[in-house]
Amino acid sequence: MATYSAKASEVKRNWFIVDANGKTLGRLASQVAAVLKGKTKPIFTTHVDTGDFVIVVNADKIHLTGKKLDQKVYYRHSGYPGGLKAVTAGTLIKSKPERIIKMAVQGMLPKTQLGKSMLSKLKVYAGDKHPHAAQQPVEMKIA
Q1: Which residues make Cβ contacts (< 8 Å) with residue 26, sequence separation at least 6?
Q2: Sign of dihedral through CA atoms 125, 86, 64, 30?
């Protein structure tokens, strides 16, 4: 028996849609990351992007437990002296709700070129409308 190793040309990608309404951020992000990596498929290979596309809708209705809306802080730096910017999770959900989900999923993917290609298959939208109806996405169940 030889160990099977998937090739990029053999991977068949499916489209999944996830409704984030009332879902907890970390649980949603970990399950979405597993689908983006391809860990839910029997052909999973660590060095090949075998994952599927994921559409997340209703990102503005994501749920954070405890006091994270006020106490969780996201930082970014412009690269200039004194260029550190900080924003709380509550403010970020109100202004750019797509970004909070994308950042949570990005933290669970590899920090390589392969991880960037996996993240490019994630589509996040604040409302319940999305422009990917032609791909006929299947609803994905999140606990």
Answers
A1: 104
A2: positive
Q: Are strands 53-57 and 15-19 parallel, antiparallel or unpaired?
A: parallel
Q: For the chain, which residues score pLDDT lower than 70?
A: none
Residue 12 burial (10 A CB sphere; 0-12, 13-18, 19+) = exposed
β-pair partners for 63: 24
Query: Do 53 and 135 meet the contact criterion of CB atoms below 8 Å apart?
Result: yes
> Could you give the maximum distance between any two Cα atoms of the chain, in Å?
59
User: Which pTM value belongs to this model?
Assistant: 0.93
d(CA 136, CA 123): 14
Distance CA 41, CA 48 (A): 12
Token pair for 13: 């990608």
Task: Kindly report, residue by residue over 37-66, the tens digit of the pLDDT.
Answer: 999 999 999 999 999 999 999 999 999 999
Instruction: List domains and CATH numbers for the chain.
Output: 13-63+97-139 (3.90.1180.10)
Q: What is the DSSP letter of 116?
A: H
